[in-house]
Amino acid sequence: MRKRGRNKYILVIVIWFLIFLYGFLKINISKSELVKDKSRFIITFKLKPVDFRIETNGYVFYVNNKTIYNIKEKYFNVKEKCNAVYNGIFTK
After folding, report:
1. Full-prediction pTM beyond 0.70?
2. How many CA atoms does the CB half-sphere of 24 hold within 13 Å?
3. What is the DSSP letter of 92?
4. What integer pLDDT is reported at residue 84 of this predicted model?
5. What is the C-alpha separation between 44 and 28, in angstroms, rounded?
6. Per DSSP, what are the bridge partners of residue 55?
7. CA dihedral 9, 11, 17, 22 (to 10 degrees)
8. Which among 16, 45, 50, 47 has a CA at the least distance from the CA of 31?
9. In terms of C-beta distances under 8 Å and separation of at least 24 residues, what long-range contacts does 82-89 make, across chains too?
10. Is the confidence at residue 36, as pLDDT, over 80?
11. 2, 39, 67, 77: which one has the fewest Cβ atoms less than 10 Å from its Cβ?
């Protein structure tokens, strides 16, 4: 009974946080360029080509097509290595 009540509170907090995050991102993405140039914190998002950037005074976090491609390539390389090790162990 107690866990069920706790799960409800956690669910409400998670939903609230997601709504807050969505609103924060929506407002920052839809700012005009004049306001973005004067701001210390900038979020930009373009769908084609995929480009998501978060910029502060000294740092930039970005995800674009190259990042997604690199993650995919690393995943397949690790998968191939795991398969090779697995085949090497069980073929002996």
Report:
1. no
2. 9
3. -
4. 85
5. 8
6. 42, 60
7. -150
8. 45
9. none
10. no
11. 2
